[in-house]
């Protein structure tokens, strides 16, 4: 079996062409990037607003849970059937949304209350507080939300290929149809590999974005990102 | 000057944090609000920079109603120091302090230069400037907090339990540092604490607040200790208030007496009679400890042959130090030193008590002081 998979993966003809691995991986990546970016475009500002004002925090929790219960596959199929295939991408956006939203919200809420109080007391306006204090300190959890969203979308995109969008899932479904298990296994491995690579890239991005002082603080307080810092 | 005029704060759920309270904080002094938790002291402080709005009444800063200025602008002109400092984790120490000048629109360069000057002023070692808050100790963080509050050179400084999260030794250092800074800067400081010792040490005036937001007494600390207004204040200032009040009694007329002394490194031949306790000095005449009466000396006198001394009384300091020096010394003789720590003589607890007695009845015991 392993030799079959290796043979399939090493066959150059499987990598090139319209249906090849390279093109499908590219499509897969593109869909995922699009879905997560589009979701972040709405979820980050909303999460910042709710975290900053404290208004609608009940909504975040309720909404995220409700969204998790949503059958994503059903949504993808539904949108694909009702509209055209590419509209199914909207389902991926919907899928990515709650993880980014709750990550952003949790990030803002986890900013040490003393720092926020000091920012207010020294005369920062609401906007200055958000940009200069809350956002930089929320980035760790915010990026955690983005990484969560990306992994979920990566996995779902694989399944969603069957509405004809393409992506690495296409190879998997095709392999099943024609009874080529070496192809199915290879596709599964490639999907996992792509997910790991993208996650690593996002980890690198997180490292670049999060200010050094925040990273040090997290390391020093036992890396408990959730909840406020314990007051002594 | 900060003036509270019949301010009252009642929350939506009906709890009253501050009852109709009036209080004037004089210019250029440290005024301390002290009381148990739930007495409304922090609420009162936060009314000054509009972090909390009073339900009724007025707060004036330098004669202007704080409600007439927009909150952010008002706060930029008032220094604010809180418990655990509240430094920004993502900015270096220097940039934390530079934040306020930056808010005023100064260039990054100017703001940083100003920050460095202030950090030096509060005694933070220069090599820590580019560290992040988490890399500093609690005491160092609080120094940075004070520097940050001073960054805009505000005339008024609000300090909300700034030193309560650090250990007692560091706290004392920070308190001394604040008094030193205040001596240089002469700000109008409103300071909140639940620690009566801190209040008495720092405050030129102390307002004692009682649970429910009542002002129990507003007086200079020595008066607070001498004449507590009611049972609450009495119990709050503590059982040893008589002793603590000596912090405010000068030591005029306290004349150190002679004592036998030897130096480290002397041999038994150099030691006088040894019928009494002998004070041991270092080569610079600073006290090192005591030699009990009749104690044998083998060869040269070394540190480990000594009995540790008590606290030292600096000449001219309040009587509390003199009495403590006498009570804590194994010989019962309190060692008096000058500012450089050089030995001047010794005093007994009896001498201190006689001075107190003579001040109470000047005519009767005049001879006893000599």
From TrEMBL, chain A:
Residues 25-202 form the ABC transmembrane type-1 domain. One of its GO terms (cellular component) is plasma membrane. Its main location: membrane. PROSITE patterns: ABC_TM1. SUPFAM superfamilies: MetI-like. It is a multi-pass membrane protein. Keywords: Membrane, Transmembrane, Transmembrane helix, Transport. GO terms for biological process: glycine betaine transport; transmembrane transport. It is found in: Cell membrane; Membrane. The chain crosses the membrane at residues 25-51, 72-97, 149-173, 185-210. Pfam families: BPD_transp_1. Belongs to the binding-protein-dependent transport system permease family. This is Osmoprotectant transport system permease protein. It comes from Actinopolyspora alba.
From TrEMBL, chain B:
Residues 2-237 form the ABC transporter domain. One of its GO terms (molecular function) is ABC-type quaternary ammonium compound transporting activity. Its EC number is 7.6.2.9. InterPro entries: AAA+_ATPase, ABC_transporter-like_ATP-bd, ABC_transporter-like_CS, P-loop_NTPase. Keywords: ATP-binding, Nucleotide-binding, Transport. It comes from the Bacteria. Belongs to the ABC transporter superfamily. PANTHER family: OSMOPROTECTANT IMPORT ATP-BINDING PROTEIN OSMV. This is ABC-type quaternary amine transporter. It comes from Actinopolyspora alba.
